[in-house]
Amino acid sequence: MSAVAEPMPIAVDGTDTVPLKYLRTLLRAAGEQGYDTDTIISRLGLPPTLMEATSDANTPVAAATYNRVYTHLMSLLQDESLGISMRQPTPSGSFRMLALYVIHCGTLENAFLRADEFQTFCRQLAGLPAVNREPLRYLEDGRVLHIMPDASEFAAQNTELAWYSIAHTMAVWRRFSSWLIGTSIDLHEVHIQLPEPADPGYLARIFDCPLLFDSEHNGFVFDASYLQAPLMHDEESLKAFLRNAPFHLLANSEVESDEGIVAQMRRVVGIDLSRDFPSVVDMAERLHMSVRTLRRRLNEVGTTYQEFKDRTRCDAATRLLNRPELKINAVAVLLGFDEPSAFHRSFKKWTGLTPGEYRQSLYT
């Protein structure tokens, strides 16, 4: 008989946390599939009082604990949806494959369309009937309704797990989409096929927008301008994201905390600085926020847009000057300076050294 782990603390100071109720919902989902929750709690070394009604449902739980429980249950059930969102189990690794399938799309619109292709292909493999619908339905006033790819697979009964299924699926996709473009997608409406529950507070807190019940589809409405936002990640950053995917996608509503505003802006600028540097207005538009909001967020991290521009170009300049095969005038061109003298003046302002003095210091 294997040893039972000592009870581990469910909250750790200084870590990301989620409410205890999220952990309980995962365990209840396993219970619905016939697994004994007490055995799972004991095996994972969680406090034996975890599911007792006397425990505060809002008690903070360490995100690492939440990830551990989710990963264990996903392995136990061999179903990424934990048996609550689709009639057909979702094989482990499905979300990772979907993410890899869309990560190289140029824009969010292309990512949505490709995700729909992936879902359609998976339905065909599972022998499920095709769903004749468009994933994006353009509305008035520059808005768009994104219809969830597996909307027809939600549980048909108005139960707590059916509601969790809807919240789970739409929240995951909305948060992942926001991560892809580096900024949170603000919602105008959420459409839900089920009738309104007695207490819709759970969904209201997740989406923070009007909820339309008894709808034709499950989906959400947002500004169509987001669709043209470029994807700001690659396979390397996706790997790091997926390591903590349960927390980021299911529990963490602060999608922008994964990557600060400066990192988002650096992704917009890219590595080719020979082009005109985007103005603060252009940058704000690319990040789907007002200039005022952009400046406020920069102020919160102790910088300005001009300082960001200077730091970005200075970092690139020092990196290029470390390549001895590049002449200093060539570095100036690569950084978008029309005149080498302008580069010399700027570099000395940034570092206190001329480019030549800086390069000489590398070898003394």
TrEMBL record:
It comes from the Bacteria. Signal peptide: none annotated. The keyword Transcription regulation applies. The keyword Secreted does not apply. Keywords: DNA-binding, Transcription, Transcription regulation. PROSITE patterns: HTH_ARAC_FAMILY_2 (PS01124). InterPro entries: AraC-type_N, Homeodomain-like_sf, HTH_AraC, Tscrpt_reg_AraC-type_HTH. Residues 263-361 form the HTH araC/xylS-type domain. This is AraC family transcriptional regulator. It comes from Candidatus Litorirhabdus singularis.
